[in-house]
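Researcher: Please predict.
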Amino acid sequence: MIELKALSFGYRGRTPLFERFSLRIPRGEAWAVIGPSGCGKSTLLHLLAGLSVPVSGEIRINGARLERPRPRTGLVLQDHGLLPWATVWKNARLGWRIRAFYGPDERHTPTDASTDTKDAEEHVVYWLERLSIAHLRDRYPHQLSRGQRQRTAIARTMALEPDLLLLDEPFSALDAPTREGLQRLVLELNRERGLTIVLVTHDIVEAALMGETILALSDEINHRPQILANPCQGDFGFEKRTPFPATCERLRRMLGPGAEPWTPPFDGRQP
């Protein structure tokens, strides 16, 4: 479970993004975070990852106060974060190399996690195959499509068996079929593994598809969370059916007058 307790954060010389902001995310749930540019979506993710430190207040994950990046948190970024000089195989295996270097110190590696080479290879092979990129193992990032690079980043993260997966607009630059395939995969991981997921998006439709609960942030100081329970999670292909349009419209209203009106995607059929 994730708990934010009276959290305050802002960048020096700017209006605070969060002020005494409290939130609870139950273990095993998939949340989507949405809001206008500059409202603190990515900042919230960096705070949950331990990459940024609150000015005041605290973050607890599974009861433990977060004071640094934790080894069981996985972070997937929009730009993939792959090493350009490393192959798909070496990129996917990177986390295991770091584990072996530091050992089970609970700072870089969980104390109960293996650092065995055979275990590492089994995990990496499994995720490359699960993500349909095993045949690309010897290619370099510049030889891959955007979707293949994102799959490699997900493989690298999932090979370490995280219990919390943070995703920062990971599908925004992908074509529609690739995006939907990865969206479906993330929801499968949530269901299969009880993986807690927090996904940042700027897209109302994606938020309605991905989050069983949706957190809407404001471009003013965020004091209280605006939370929407979402009955439409995973309803791929049902954008025109109730309650999907109603959910998207409620989200648009929560985001305020600057949000674009939501309209159902055109499917080529006459009304």
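Model: Helices lie at 41-49, 88-92, 94-102, 117-130, 146-158, 176-193, 204-210, 244-255.
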